[in-house]
Design a protein that fits this description.
homodimer, five-stranded parallel beta sheet, five-stranded mixed beta sheet, 10 strands
Chain lengths: 239, 239
């Protein structure tokens, strides 16, 4: 018997609790402790809400503090503290799952935790259970292929620079812009400038309270929610 | 009661039957007929093998012929024939699921079927159930984040032109090359030319018989299987 527990990164998908994989559900039912990241925005407890129908009664949950900063030192010390919280249980032989919205390997904070645990406690085994991303759910829900034979697909998260977005749209056949709440006016302008207004769509909070279904960028809210995305399709098949 | 059935595109994930979503499993258990694409390569019945543990006994399965051609007219007439096979059942009020490896909206033949059905039988409702892609499973299985904060991710399928791949690697932070069996020697050369040999890895047939676990491109088979992919990571975190 292994006296050290396993740390699992579990993707819970974008919102619908039916979009977890069987492996995610089986993992969540088996672990002794759940971790979820809380932030100043508090968006991250959404992962816990999605997972809740699948948890066994009484499983303890610890919210990990995750500073919304790009300061490397602040981030590192926060994740070291979080790694120690996880390790305390893991070293007692208890399995621990860290919940992430979508997929733990796609723009997730799990990477920080996994790296920090690997550095401080190299003896702790880490496993990852993938999850459906918001853009996959957006494509499925609207029957729009993200990418087809002969095409490419570019995934971005947040637009800081309209010029970079403009270049990206020139090069990619299909583009997904996650966290498109940031500089949404600029995104709209660039997409329309490229004549792609009728080849793009906006969705927000897929499968969650406050969902905004597919609409054109022109009809999207001026100040979209944090969990908003834009799909741009340049290929022969319209969005 | 609706007298017309629903056509479902169901993603069965990359190989492990535990990587289907609950929604996919629930859909497969409910439908009256299953469709899967067979090809001259015969790879497509893999989707049926993955789904098999989740099917109710005795559900009929029809293999649809899918020509491996880029001739638009041949493709169209094949998919019209396939759409008619599906429609015959759907118009009797029976629900039908078309199985796809990975996700039905990511390089899947489901797009052809759905469009043809929509054109010939606009009254038939179509729904899509997303699935875990091979590159998500590759990232999860190896604990390698596909993309992190501030980075982008480019997905390609098949490399026809080494120059195009070279440009892509220059522009993208992280790149996934699906169907990397095609021109694998050129892929290897371009990746190494960019000094990304130690920032890339190869995997094949994840979760399937004949799986090749993570290895360097230099150690990969010279003639990789059809279901092979390469991940290239340029960001600060190594692959």
């Amino acid at each position: 018997m292994n006296s050290i527990g396993t740390l699992y990164g579990v993707g819970v998908g974008p919102g619908d609790p039916e979009l977890l994989t069987l492996k995610a559900v089986n993992t969540l039912r088996r672990v002794d402790l759940l971790l979820a990241a809380s932030s100043s925005r508090n968006e991250y407890s959404i992962a816990l809400d999605i997972a809740r129908p699948h948890l066994h009664e009484g499983v303890p949950v610890v919210m990990l503090d995750f500073p919304m900063t790009r300061d490397r030192k602040d981030l590192e010390s926060a994740w070291e503290a979080n790694a120690r919280i996880a390790a305390e249980e893991l070293l007692k032989g208890r399995d621990v799952a860290f919940l992430t919205l979508g997929d733990p390997m796609v723009y997730s904070t799990f990477g920080y935790l996994a790296r920090t645990v690997a550095r401080l406690y190299p003896e702790i085994p880490v496993r990852v259970v993938p999850g459906i991303t918001s853009f996959q759910a957006a494509a499925a829900g609207n029957g729009v292929p993200l990418v087809e034979s002969g095409e490419n697909l570019l995934i971005l998260s947040g637009v800081n620079d309209a010029h970079v977005l403009s270049e990206s749209l020139e090069q990619a056949d299909n583009t997904v812009i996650l966290k498109s709440y940031r500089n949404f006016a600029a995104i709209k302008e660039v997409v329309e400038h490229h004549g792609l207004g009728d080849r793009s769509f906006f969705v927000s909070r897929i499968g969650l309270a406050g969902e905004v279904g597919r609409c054109s960028l022109a009809d999207a809210p001026d100040n979209p929610n944090y969990l908003s995305l834009v799909v741009v399709k340049k290929g022969p098949e319209k969005a």
